[in-house]
Amino acid sequence: MQGQANPAQADVFERLPIPAALRKMIFPAVVSQLIVLIYNMADTFFVGLTNNPYMVASTSLILPVFNITLCLAGLAGIGGGSLISRLLGQSRPEEARRVGTFSLYLGLSISALFATGIGCFMDPILYLLGAGENTFSFARQYALCVIVIGGVPTVLSNVLANLIRSIGRSREASAGIILGGVLNIALDPLFMFVLMPDGYEVLGAGMATCLSNCVAFLFFLTVLLRMGRGSVITFFPKHGLPAKASVIAVFGVGVPSAIATFLFDLDYVVLDKLMVSYHDLALAAIGIVLKVERFPLNVGVGICQGMLPLVAYNYSAGNAARMNEAIRLSRRLGLVIAAVSIALYELFAVQFAHLFISDPLTVELASQFLRVRVLATPLMFLSFFTVYLFQAFGKGRISLLLGVTRWLGFNIPMLFLLNAIFGMYGLVWSQVTADTLTVLLSFYVYRRFRPAVGVPSLNT
């Protein structure tokens, strides 16, 4: 049975040919992910203009904690968004509206708690992350702006983007993310080199990031107001609480998504901690590589984000043909992007490193690291593509199994193992080794536990 949808949603979810529907959903999502990547790299790029590797290293130390704010957004946004698409596929728009409101207030609550916790325990957290004498003060300035002050608007912007995309409005969802990213790129040099004195460039970068995320949040509020109170996505709680099964379903998909993202960031923390044991230049180099390698990965995330509502809706509506075609074309596109990125990074690794810093030793290390790490790109795409599929199906337990096994079973143990055997370059090769095992597991799990179309359940 096809779900009840407004005309715009019906065009995307039911009537448009899948290639056209995917273009409408994926293209804005990919563009927004690239802008997110660029503005994440913008801080490193502009901080790198100081030619101070300790400033570069300090922003790299905060990256995993900043990304935890995004995992909190995934708890509410992906958990709620996946369920909303499935509810629309089941012709249940009123319950979808209640789920949307619940997800928004969930995101507000957990982001406020996280920002408060980081503010109260800032110093021990920074020491735990590996901040040393040369990087501590810079890392503290950056964390104060982007996490303590800017955490709530960052989380809510990403929650709203996921929820708005879940009803077929990928363009509006991506526009707010793009706005925040473009503004951050414009504000970075202004705050760092004009408004702030010498030595406070990292603080300027953090202030620019915080302000840009606040503006993005205000944009999404404007979108909600224009959509009206009758929209599926609304801040107004007059429609009441969702059913218990829906709340369980939000957490059933959202919690595994958050845990997987947290473990992804924990992997970065472990990598930083192990790399800093060699020297600060190695930490700066791996920090640059972790930014550069995100280009194909962010494109892959955009593909998955655009694909998820289509798969979730048609899975619940029982349209196996549309669902399978969406999966097939999305997977093929992601692998093509991964192959192109390998070729470009192998050929131009030095040039990419030079974009962020001119220190020759750091550039040499970063280019060597990049040529190895990029080999894992298609493997990483296939890994999280499978996780997104099970999120679309509402199978949170399986996505949790894949995420936990990937990071705690393969990636993080491989960091310690290869570091003990091969040293610094063992850390760099760990991603390829671990994700090879992850992909094999993902293929088995998908073939074994892929649900039948036409008998969807909210529960996981």
Short account of what is shown:
The chain has 17 helices and no strands. With 460 residues, the protein is mostly helical.
Roughly how many Å is the radius of gyration? 21 Å
How many β-strand runs? 0
Structural class given helices, strands, pairing?
A: mainly alpha
What is the end-to-end distance? 21 Å
State the helical fraction.
over 70%
Following the backbone from N to C, one meets helices and strands in this order, namely: HHHHHHHHHHHHHHHHH
Shape: globular
Average pLDDT: 86
Q: Give the number of helices.
A: 17
Outline the low-pLDDT stretches: 1-5
Please give the structural blueprint.
Layout: H1 7-15, H2 18-48, H3 53-89, H4 93-120, H5 122-129, H6 136-149, H7 151-166, H8 170-195, H9 201-227, H10 244-276, H11 280-292, H12 294-317, H13 320-354, H14 360-373, H15 377-392, H16 396-422, H17 424-449
Helix pairs in contact: 2-3, 2-8, 2-9, 2-12, 3-4, 3-6, 3-7, 3-10, 3-11, 3-12, 4-6, 4-7, 5-6, 6-9, 7-8, 7-9, 8-9, 10-16, 11-14, 12-13, 12-15, 13-14, 13-15, 14-17, 15-16, 15-17, 16-17
Task: Explain the overall architecture.
The two termini are 21 Å apart. Residues 1-5 have low confidence and may be disordered. With 460 residues, the protein is mainly α. It has 17 helices and no strands.
